[in-house]
Known about the structure:
Number of strands: 2
Organism: Amedibacterium intestinale
Structural class: alpha+beta
Transmembrane segments: 7-27, 47-66
Strand content: 5-15%
Protein name: DUF1648 domain-containing protein
Keywords: Membrane, Transmembrane, Transmembrane helix
Oligomer: single chain
Pfam family, one: DUF1648
Amino acid sequence: MKVKKIIYAVLIVLPVVFTLFLLPSMPEQVPIHYGADYLADRWGSKYEVLVSPLICTVAGLILYAGTKYASKQEKMDIIMSKLNCC
């Protein structure tokens, strides 16, 4: 079980670490949005590239917290069902 937690933690943090690793080699202005004609129609700072990995990290943490809550709730339901049956 501990190996799964380590793998999950690495996968949660990996996008941010990878982006931070590539950040110094990026130009100051990067294309952020492309139009229907496949041309960049919005340019932004290279630091705006961090938004997507940070959203993935936050979503991963929320999902992890949700699984911890659900497993505790399931254990509590099992305990309560055993107490009511006997």
